[in-house]
Automatic annotation (TrEMBL):
Species of provenance: Micromonospora pisi
Stated name of the protein: Magnesium chelatase family protein
Stretches assigned to the AAA+ ATPase domain: 210-393
Family: Belongs to the Mg-chelatase subunits D/I family. ComM subfamily.
Domain of life assignment: Bacteria
SUPFAM superfamilies in the record: P-loop containing nucleoside triphosphate hydrolases, Ribosomal protein S5 domain 2-like
Alphabetized GO MF terms: ATP binding
Length: 506
């Protein structure tokens, strides 16, 4: 027999596709031809597989070898096809009966000595296999714990091509995934450590409860960064479905910690202000890789010193914030990554970073306006909560941290508020108030009484608030009422939402 086939999985973005690796050995000048839209790394598999087969003690067939990856129209990239190619090639010689691999997906990169190396993206690959009806997979031993989190799939592991060959030929045992350790992840810094800043603490709590974007403005030392870094500590843990999404993205990026546990804490990404557009939204040659906005999916994207970021990089975030995804088109095809994040901006009010009105401030009013205008109006209009923090007073700084509410206390209120929102919107597919479309909130069933929105409508008519801002204030009012345990927002909730939107300090 000169033909054999082994199943594998290819990734396009975070979506996996079942791939059939075919090998045909024919008489002719010895050569290896690889077809099916392989990239450079995959084309180099010819040399890796040959060395691995020979160094494992197997006979290399001196024939014309054609390896085809089906479907041929799907771009293939990476080294995860190596092990499947080697198995198909050896099966094509007729010396290795591949019946034990019927209906089994094989994943792994080969070293020249025949060792099987870990690869990126194993989790979404196994998820794709499960969705295609595959119940058995063989993966590198270092990826086994990660693959084992997918329910309904029997995972076996190999550390070398020799073990896989022994399993196929003689029925030798494959390796079991290592045991997983279910230790809860650390929650990070605590909100109790933030001195003073009652308005800032309230803004962070509202943002967490409703999934709202947040902008914190104020002088150095006011607590902007401390508040932002503690936002994840009051967010609830990710549910199974969401945790699988987040873990798959981190698997593709090669950022999963050892142990193979699902990412349960909302991710926190804080790129430096010199970050480029590709590093923020994704990019690269060939098929684009995820950027910081996708790695923060279902978590926080924190841009400290936001006014120092390049304006093009900031404005590139507008589309992901609006649609919750990033679509990157390249010559080899388009890639889509999820990007449903909470954006948190922090910025000083001016270049000299002195408090407004301070006699030592070196900036003119025009310089202050120019500095903050680096954050474009259209981007700021998409930020629900916008507050200006005032400098700390000595009494606030020296007060005992025990008087401040901890992250656990605030997080409990956030969880209760989110549960109320989920119960209200679940049948419509929304989990937090920030996800609810504005037109829906203006329908008769959910429209707030005219008496509660008088001030809001005046601001819209005067032009001090945009239509988008109007809807975002309504969403925040629902969040505030959820936090305070009310079924519907009242005039006081709308007034507080306006304060949190317009950077008013009182």
């Amino acid at each position: 027999m000169s033909y054999a086939k082994v199943l594998c999985v290819g990734l396009v973005g975070v979506t996996g596709h079942l791939v059939e690796v075919e090998a045909d050995l024919a008489p002719g000048l010895p050569a290896v031809v690889l077809s099916g839209l392989p990239d450079t790394a995959l084309n180099e598999a010819r040399d890796r597989v040959r060395a691995a087969v020979v160094n494992t003690g197997q006979r290399w067939p001196n024939r014309r070898i054609t390896v085809n990856l089906l479907p041929a129209t799907l771009p293939k990239h990476g080294s995860g096809f190596d092990l499947a190619i080697a198995a198909a090639l050896l099966g094509g010689t007729g010396d290795l009966p591949l019946a034990p691999l019927d209906g089994v997906v094989v994943l792994g990169e080969l070293g020249l000595d025949g060792t099987v190396r870990p690869i990126r993206g194993v989790l979404p690959m196994v998820v794709a296999a499960a969705r295609a009806g595959i119940t058995r997979v063989v993966v590198p031993i270092d990826n086994a714990a990660e693959a084992a989190v997918v329910p309904g799939v029997r995972v076996r592991a190999v550390e070398s091509l020799h073990r896989l060959v022994a399993y196929i030929r003689d029925g030798a045992a494959l390796l079991d995934p290592p045991p997983r350790h279910g230790a809860p992840p650390p929650r990070g810094p605590d909100l109790a450590e933030v001195a003073g800043q009652g308005l800032g603490r309230r803004a962070v709590e509202v943002a967490a409860a409703g999934g709202h974007h947040l902008a914190l403005l104020g002088p150095p030392g006011a607590g902007k960064t401390m508040l932002a870094e503690r936002l994840p500590s009051i967010l609830p843990e990710l549910d199974d479905e969401t945790a699988l999404e987040v873990t798959a993205l981190h698997s593709i990026a090669g950022l999963l910690p050892p142990g193979g546990e699902l990412v349960r804490r909302p991710p926190f990404q804080a790129p430096h202000h010199t970050a480029t557009v590709p590093s923020l939204v994704g990019g690269g040659t060939g098929l684009a890789r995820p950027g910081a906005v996708s790695l923060a999916h279902r978590g926080i994207l924190f841009l400290d010193e936001a006014a120092e970021f390049a304006s093009g990089a900031l404005d590139a975030l507008r589309q992901p914030l609006e649609h919750g995804r990033v679509v990157l088109n390249r010559a080899r095809g388009g890639t889509e990554y999820p990007a449903r994040v909470q954006l948190v901006l922090a910025s000083n009010p001016c270049p000299c970073a002195k408090p407004a009105g301070d006699t030592h401030c070196e900036c003119t009013p025009l310089a202050r306006r120019r500095y903050l205008s680096r954050i474009s109006g259209p981007l700021l209009d998409r930020i629900d909560v916008q507050v200006t923090l005032t400098p700390l007073r000595a009494a606030e700084l020296m007060a005992s941290a025990e008087a401040n509410e901890s992250s656990a206390v605030v997080g409990a209120r956030v969880a209760t508020a989110r549960a109320a929102a989920t119960a209200r919107w679940a049948k419509l597919g929304w989990k937090v108030n920030a996800d609810v479309p504005g037109p829906y909130l203006r329908q008769a069933r959910w429209r707030l009484p005219a008496a509660s929105t008088v001030q809001l409508r005046r601001r819209l008519d005067s032009g001090s608030l945009s239509a988008r801002g109007f809807d975002r204030v309504i969403r925040m009012a629902w969040t505030i009422s959820d936090l305070d345990g009310r079924e519907r927002p009242g005039a006081d909730d709308v007034a507080e939402a306006i304060q949190l939107r317009t950077r008013e300090t009182s």
